[in-house]
Amino acid sequence: MESKPIVVDNGSYEIKFGPSDLATPYRALNALARDKFGAHYLSNQIKSIKDISSVVVRRPHELGQLTSWELESTIWDYCFFNPDEFGGFELKDTKDQHLIASETCMTIPELSKNMDQVIFEEYEFASLFKSSPAGFVPFGRAPIAISGKGDDMPTSEADSKSYKPFQLVIDSGFNCTWVVPVVKGVPYYKAIKKLDVGGRFLNGLLKETLSFRHYNVMDETILVNNIKEKCLFVSPISYFDSFKHRDDTAVEYVLPDFQTSFLGYVKDPSKPLPEDSQIVKLRDELFSIPETFFHPEIAQLLKPGIIETILESLSMLPEQLRPLMLSNIVCTGGNFNLPHFSTRLATELQRQLPTDWSCTVHSPMGPKELHNWQCMAAFANSPLYSEVRVTRDEYYEHGVDWCTKKRFGYQNWI
């Protein structure tokens, strides 16, 4: 009997991977770090760094494209052949294994070929199917529906499981935010739009803001990323409303002292602080940084925000499809873990639409960054999977150019 395929959501910040029958995937940071003493840490070893100051992080992805397979294959080896780290999971022989992998939207064809060559020629997987994460989303479930008109209600069990032929996927990850209309499981490439605001951008802006107002943290990548994940939120109503109440929502963040804490933490008012603790009191930084999704001009970025990007994408779709897409918006990616992001998006988008159109945003439960992997695992269990994958024999028969142009590339659809 054929083994369950291995599903790899190859994100630029974190790799989610494991057999398709897992409830929750294994997770590994997609990076290599060097501390100030010159020691190197690969993937999840980064979490064991004691002194996080002046840590330099290198990633295989640049500008959203996977450019360094020398580093990426090392991280994949760490994921696939490291049973002590990942609960006994190990690929003893990749020749008999089938792979489902994600790839960035609009990947440059030459870089896409590199991925095929590594998978079939170095790892020698038995078969491969890859797509942008948006292509897998219609197979998944997003049980929370948020209406732009305010009448929120959970979708029924039947609705959440059914395949949606028309969906607008908003995938907001570490590198950027993609707006991808999906028609019958195929991304509509002519209307795909990219917003250059993601987790990396928020980290950089937060570094500058904290360095200007409090302490110099320009070299504290890990610390700033932790502050972003623990403290930031999207203004639930508007930036100006949150600004009026900035003192009510203020947070005191205790910086690491490398004795009681290595990453720092949010201050608990009921507990006393250790002596000589350094505290950063965050007020309007908490919501002004994520507000750049809606108003990039806050960061002197002269580009359209996420609402304008969505409307621009819709304008390139056939007119009959636009209301269908707006009623089936799916939010996925780690940035949607920011509180109120999905609700604010639905509200802001509804204001820009004709009055008889209804905007409904579907938000997955649990960690949003895992939703793409869960959709990929659902696709692996569908009967369609075995029909569309490319086997190693087909790859060697037709060549890498055929793989990219005829099966996995976007050229045929434009």
Automatic annotation (TrEMBL):
A GO biological-process term: chromatin organization
Annotated compartments: Cytoplasm; Nucleus
Function of the protein: Component of the SWR1 complex which mediates the ATP-dependent exchange of histone H2A for the H2A variant HZT1 leading to transcriptional regulation of selected genes by chromatin remodeling. Involved in chromosome stability.
Cellular component, GO, one term: cytoplasm
SUPFAM superfamilies: Actin-like ATPase domain
Keyword terms, alphabetized: Activator, Chromatin regulator, Cytoplasm, Nucleus, Transcription, Transcription regulation
Family of this protein: Belongs to the actin family. ARP6 subfamily.
Pfam families, per database record: Actin (PF00022)
Species, as recorded: Zygosaccharomyces bailii (strain CLIB 213 / ATCC 58445 / CBS 680 / BCRC 21525 / NBRC 1098 / NCYC 1416 / NRRL Y-2227)
InterPro entries: Actin, ATPase_NBD
PANTHER family per UniProt: ACTIN (PTHR11937)
Name of the molecule in the record: Actin-like protein ARP6
Keyword Zinc: no
Protein's UniProt keywords contain Transcription: yes
